[in-house]
Structure formats: structure tokens, C-alpha cells
Amino acid sequence: MPRRSTRATVLSQDDIEVDEQENIPSQHDSVQDADQPMDSADEALPEQKPGRRTRKSNTTKSKTVKIKTEQKKIFRAPENAPDDGHSDDSEAVAPFDRDEFLATARPIPPEGAKTIDGVISDLQTVVHALGHQGFNLVLETAVAVEETSGNTEEGQEAATKLDLVMRQLADAQQELKIHQGTLDALKQSILRDEAQGNIVETYTQNVADALQAYNNSTTRQKYAKHVDYFKFRDRVWEVNHEDAMPPLGDLLPREDGDSDVESDIEVGGMTQDYKCPLTLMPLTDPLTSKTCRHSFSAAPIREYIATGGGRMKCPATGCNQNLTLNDLEADDDLARRATIALRRAQRREDSDKSDAEVVD
């Protein structure tokens, strides 16, 4: 009997709580059993052996729960730890200091150069699209305006606006190239395994400095040697002029900072004969050689090459380059220019006839 009371009193508070949830007799019940008369307890002993085993099994279950509770307590944060608003009981980590991280100079892995190279390639695609589509669209519009109403006040106003659009496109193209150049310099620095500080600030500052230098340039410095802008002015010029366009610097205003040396090395436009070397007639569906850049009407040059079994010497005077059909490509820009030249010649002929009729 005393042994039964001892077993009941060693249960902890946690065991008591679990016993209540599992419907296990509590310590209070055990105490009541201990207060019963000795005779009653002794008489009940033989019948309570199974119950004794059951109580042992329940006690084991209580101890298991108690161990789990103690293990959980090991991972609990101290009571005086600050509340960071998270339920995670793991050890607190120092907050990430972005400014300190960016200001610390460290080499960047070579994989970073590959990523930058991909961005440069994307920018190159945009620059190409801008030059191929944007410039050509404005050019074709300006040529049409010059041809139809270039001598009118409305036509001259439209031409001025289109010229401004072309300059804005040139500025946008230059800005993209500045980004390209800055990224390329950063990529080369990474490949040399040089320590990098705050690359975002460095990149932004270098781009801003280059753009400021470009914006401080004069009109001649920006556009006189710009290939697409030169092409734009040259094509518009030849719509109503027989002679070649003068140097572009002569058509742009002179500003403070322009150098006489720069203007001396500028070249003007070139006159082009829009006649086929084979037929001496205006070019029709022109094909241009990819090797010597001479151009011919499509049908005559095909017949000429066929007579030589698929390979013939270039018929242009002074050219010794051999040609095949694979060396020729369609030249849409030349086709437009040849058409404009033909219409210009027609207008001049009509004007001469009108002047002759007035004299008569």
C-alpha cells in the first residue's frame, strides 16, 4: 500500500495535465485510494493487477510527453529577447546593410561579365532597329515631302520638323551607345578581376558624365559626321539638286567651340549615275554586287552572267572583280533613289519644254 502512494506522488505537474487529457487517474484520485482502509485495498489487490499495468503504461506515455516538452523548451528564445514580429524561434540574425554591402569593394565572378554581355547584345539590337527602321522611315517621309512640296512654305516647315526628328533619333542612338560603352568597360574590369565598389553608382555616374559631355557638344560636333544623319541630308538634297551636296558642316550653323580643322576634313555628298553600265539606261530593279559594290539592272546582269556559264568579269569600267549571281543582292534604297532621279529628270525636261513654248 505505501508503494502505491509513492508512485502517485512522484508525478510532475506536466504529467498531471496530460493525465487529465488522456483520462488517466489523477494524483487526487491516487491520494483518495491511499486514504482507503488497508483491508479494502488488500482485498482489491488481486483484481487490480491489470489496472496496475495500465497505470504503468499511462505513466510511460506521460513521461514521453514530458520529454518532448522539455526538448521544445531548449529552442525557446530568452524572455528578454526583443520581439521582431516573427514567430520563428531560431537564433536572431543581424539585418542586411545594403549601403555597406554596395560600398565594399570586391571582385565580381566571371559570370557577371556574361550577364553584362547579354545586356550589351540587347542594346545593340535596339540600336540596329533604331537605325534600320526609325531612320529609314523618317528618311522616306522627308524625301516624299521634298519631292511633292519642297518648294512651298508648308513643305519647308515640314522638312524642318523632320530634320529635328532625325536629330532626336541620332541623340537617342548616341545615348544607347553610351550605355553600351559604359557596360563594356565594366565587363572588361570584371574580366581583369578588379575589385568593384558600388557598381550601380559607378555605372550611373559614368553614363551621366558621358551624356553631359555629348549634350555640351555643338550641333556640328553631334551631327556632321553622323552616318545616318548625313545620309538623310544627302538624300533630301538630291531630290531637287543636280550637283552633289556640300559638306554637311556648311549646312549646319557654326557655334562656339567649333574648330576650323574639323570643317576642313569634312566631305560632301557624291553624285551618282543612276544608269546601268550594261544598257546605259536608268536602273530598273537594281542589283548591287556584294564584293565591288557596282550596281546593274536586274534582267541585263542576269543575262550577262549566264553567257559566261555563271561567272563573268564585272562590266563596270576599270573593275576586274568576277561576278556570280550569288554575289548580287537587291538594293531597295538605290531603287528609290533611281526613281527619284528619273522623276527629277522628267520634271526638268517638262520645265524646259514649258520655257521653249513661252519663247515661241
Can you give a write-up of this model?
The chain is mainly alpha-helical. A 3-stranded antiparallel beta sheet has the order 2-1-5. Strands 3-4 form a two-stranded antiparallel sheet. β1 and β2 form a beta hairpin. α8 runs antiparallel to α9. The protein is flat, with a radius of gyration of 46 Å. The protein starts with a helix and ends with a helix. 14% of the residues are buried. The N terminus is likely disordered.
Which blocks of ≥5 consecutive residues have pLDDT under 50?
1-46, 51-77, 261-265
Q: How does the overall form come out from the CA principal axes?
A: flat
- What portion of the residues fall into strands of 2 or more residues? under 5%
Tell how many strands the DSSP assignment holds. 5
The helix fraction, in percent, is 55-70%
In a few lines, what is going on in this structure?
The chain has helices at 2-9, 13-21, 27-35, 38-44, 49-74, 98-103, 110-149, 153-191, 199-215, 219-223, 227-237, 248-251, 260-264, 298-307, 332-359, and strands at residues 286-289, 295-297, 312-313, 322-323, 328-330.
Layout of SSEs?
Layout: H1 2-9, H2 13-21, H3 27-35, H4 38-44, H5 49-74, H6 98-103, H7 110-149, H8 153-191, H9 199-215, H10 219-223, H11 227-237, H12 248-251, H13 260-264, E1 286-289, E2 295-297, H14 298-307, E3 312-313, E4 322-323, E5 328-330, H15 332-359
Antiparallel strand pairs: 1-2, 1-5, 3-4
Helix pairs in contact: 1-3, 2-5, 7-8, 7-11, 8-9, 8-11
